[in-house]
Amino acid sequence: MMTVMMTVVAVAYWRWDSRVTERNISFRSEVFTTAQESELKDTDIPTLHQLNEEYSKVAQLVERVLVSIDTTGVTNVTQPSEDGQSVIEKRLAVHGLGSGVIVTKEGHIITAYHVIQNKHALRVTLSDGRSVSVHLVGVDPELDIAVLKVDKPDNQTTFNPLPFGNSDKVAPGMIVLACGNPYGLGTTVSRGIISARERKLMDSGLDLIQTDASIFPGNSGGPLINIRGEIIGINKSILPNTEKSYTGIGFAIPSNLVQHSFQQICVHGRPMRGYLGLDIVPNTPPLRSFLDYHEATGAVVNMVKSGSPAEQAGLRTGDVMLNFNEVPILNVQDVLDRIENLSIGDKFRLKIWRKGQKMNLTLKVGDSILQNAPSPWADFMDGVGMHLRELTAEEQSIGARGLLVIQVNPKKSVGQILQTGDMVFAVNHQSVSTMEALVKALREGPALLTVSRDGQQFNVKVDARPVSEKTLLPRIPTATKNKGPTYLTNHSQMVISLVKETNFP
């Protein structure tokens, strides 16, 4: 036993004494030999070497005109009141990142409109690290672009911009570079190809360019470049609902649309876009059956906006467009192609079918700035924090019922619950199909909205009456030394509570 113990002690002492420490190591220089050159010469891979050099040249062109945009804005965040019966709103500063590209010698910058939307301060940094002051020239929310211009104190500085390319000539498979300021890292270039053109997203009616070049948060507003160093698009977004996966499916606004809008903003201060105030849909078999129309050609008027040039000309929902300036209309695209080439003030003849009769109408293209003439209940619904529309004949013909939510204000409490695309099909347990009925119910007192979303139903209670008309006000916490500021109910503040929730997504 004693022998065993002595052996263990000796081994332990040896292991302790053998520890690597600075005291018991005598350093000896190592002999090492690294490889001095690659086994592959440039002449062995001439094509790859040339591609490498050319990619680098294109990237260097982009670097000189790329800018980083840091934004500061304010948002309203809701939180429950002390009694849990209502919500209150707090204003918080939020910071954002984006990109832009210099497109003129004078220092005009194009970026995405959503990068600067509702922002109170902008900080623009050039590729060389200099911060510059800028002012807003104009915006095109429909296209999602904004135009800034660098303020030059000496008025002598000139820039060396990149030219616009022809986005109509892009095709799947073409090599492109997506450039921007992802995550605030600074100038970043990613390579990919054109995956598709004329791609439409659910939240946009635009024909966008799809690319697999990596577009990350912060890349919005940066340029999409072809191998000639031309701007063929402005980076807009990634595929919606991809959560934290940003690679593989990105979208850019075509350069031809961007350039046209940019020129109009610089000349007129805004895009000069023609406006008719109507929505048209394909002449599908279910719609033909609903209208009792038996021809497969033509396009159907889905909606006519009140006060629009289309309404003034006599167009109605359910009309079938047959001829445009005596040229037969085969489908919706025929109409869109012809309208696209019209300017504000242009007139054209339209032959239509309506309830078994044919008639001729003359339409005059209006100014898009007038398209947002408010409906009789627009101001009221602005206060509520949401906008809805009545369903079209086509939508009703396939069994849809209710009112479609087309916009919510995230700064309003209702915007924390409802989403664009929700269907409100009942108010106070009564079916609703008109805006007039919905507004009447909201004005009379607290209303229980029954909402459908992705096949699931839930109820939302909305009290949209002015504060002075409410008989029961929620208790709003008052300010104390330890609780911070007071949040008061005002005329526009809505009291929203989720009454019932069933498989809420």
Could you characterize the architecture of this molecule?
The chain has 505 residues and is of the alpha+beta class. It has 4 domains: 63-150, Thrombin, subunit H (Beta Barrel), CATH 2.40.10.10; 167-268, Beta Barrel (Thrombin, subunit H), CATH 2.40.10; 274-370, Pdz3 Domain (Roll); 378-501, Pdz3 Domain, CATH 2.30.42.10. Helices cover 19% and strands 35% of the residues. The protein is built from 10 helices and 28 strands. It has helices at residues 2-17, 46-63, 113-116, 255-268, 285-291, 309-313, 332-340, 378-384, 393-397, 435-444; strands at 66-80, 87-102, 108-112, 119-125, 131-132, 134-140, 145-150, 175-180, 188-199, 208-211, 223-226, 231-238, 250-254, 274-275, 278-282, 299-304, 320-324, 327-328, 347-354, 357-364, 366-367, 386-390, 403-408, 423-427, 430-431, 447-453, 456-463, 495-501. The strands form 5 sheets. The chain has a 7-stranded antiparallel β-sheet with strand order 5-4-1-2-3-7-6. The longest helix has 18 residues, at 46-63. The protein starts with a helix and ends with a strand. The model is unreliable at 467-505 (pLDDT under 50).
Keywords:
about 500 residues, alpha+beta, Thrombin, subunit H, Pdz3 Domain, 4 domains, about 20% helix, globular
Total of helices:
10
Distance between the termini: 71 Å
- Largest β-sheet summary: 7 strands, antiparallel
CATH names the topology of the largest domain as Pdz3 Domain
Structural shape = globular
Which secondary-structure class do the elements indicate? Answer: alpha+beta
**Number of structurally distinct domains:** 4
Percent of residues in beta strands: 25-35%
User: What is the level-2 CATH architecture name of the largest domain?
Assistant: Roll
Bin the helical content: 10-25%
Q: Which stretches are low in confidence, meaning pLDDT under 50 for 5 or more residues running?
A: 467-505
**Average pLDDT level:** 75
